[in-house]
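Posting this for the archive.
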Amino acid sequence: MRGRPLACLLVALLLSIRPGTAQTAGSKPATAKPASTKPISTKPASTVRINGSSTVLPLAREAVRSFQMGGQSRGSRFELGASGTSAGFRQFCAGRLSIATASRPISGAELAQCEARGVRFIELPVAFDAITVVVHPSNRWLDQITTAQLKTIWNRKAEGTIRRWRQVDRTWPDRAIRLCGPGQDSGTFDTFNKAINGQEDNSRRDYTASEDDDVLVRCVATNPDSLGYFGFDYYQSNRRALKALAVAGPRGPVLPSQATVQTSQYIPLSRALFFYVNARDLQQQPVVRQFVHATLQQGTAVAERSGVIPLPDSTYRLVAAKLYRNIAGTAFDGNLPVGLTLGKILQRSFAEHKQPQFR
C-alpha cells in the first residue's frame, strides 16, 4: 500500500464529513462530606464485553493487556471470548457486547438483526490476515496447492467422495486425507468458502471442525496426512508444528506473509480484520472509547506482538479519524468481498455513503 493514495483518502474523508457534535454531561460541584465508615466498593466501574472471531482474539487479548499495562483501565473489567464471528455478531446485534471482533464484514442478515434491535455501530478495520493452508511438517511432497485443488477437496460435492490425496492429483500419495477446518460460526469458514467454492456455505461437513483455532492447530500438527486452514496468527505462533503451503491464485504460487498480504499478492485468501464497536457504549462507557483509541494509536505494535499483519501506519490514522468522527454503519452493504486487493477493501471501509439506517 502506498502512502500517497491513503493520504489522499484521509483528506477526502476529513473534508467530506461534518464533525460530530460532542455531548458532555454536566456535573454538580463536589461538596465536602465527612469520612464514611461504609466499606469501599470493589465493583468495577464498567465491564467491556468483547467476543467474536478466534482469528482476532490474539490481537484483542494483546490490546487489552497493553491498555491495562498503561494504567488506563481505571478499574474496568474486560471479558474476552472467541465464539466465532457469526456467533459474536448474534450477541452484538442483541446488544450484549461492546465490541464484536470479526474476520469478515457484517452480513445483510446481521445488519437486519442490528437494525431491529436499534444497535448502531462503528466498523473499524484493525489488521490484515492471510487465511493460511497448512499441512504436517513431515509432508515433503507438497509445497504448493492451487485454488482449483482446494475446491476439489473442500466443496460440498467432495463430502464422502474425495477421501484420498491421489483423488486430487494423481502424482500425490494414495493415502487418506485428514481434514481440519473452522466451524460454521467462523468468519474464516465464510471467507474461505466464498473465495474457493463460490459461496459461504458451499463446504463439505465431514472434517474435524472447530471455532477454536488451537484445536485446528493440534489437528494438523498431530497427523502426517492432515490438511487444514485458519488465520495467519495461529500459523505464526506454531510455525515449528506446521508447514504453510503456497496458494496458486491469480498471482501464481504465493506464500502467506506480511509482505505478500500488504502488497496484495496473496489473493484470494487475504482479508481485513475488524472491530465492530457499539455506538451506545462509546458514548456511555468512556473506557470503551479510550480502549479502542489506544488500540489504534498503537496499532502496528499491538498487531505485530499478537502475530497478525498490521495495517500501514497511515491507515491506522484513517481508522482513528473514523472513530473520532463517529462514522456509523458498514461500507460493505452486507456483502462479503473476496478477490479484491486490500487497497480496495480499505477504500470501501472509508466510503462516505453509508446505508441510511446506520448513518
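The chain has 14 helices and 13 strands. The longest strand covers residues 121-130.
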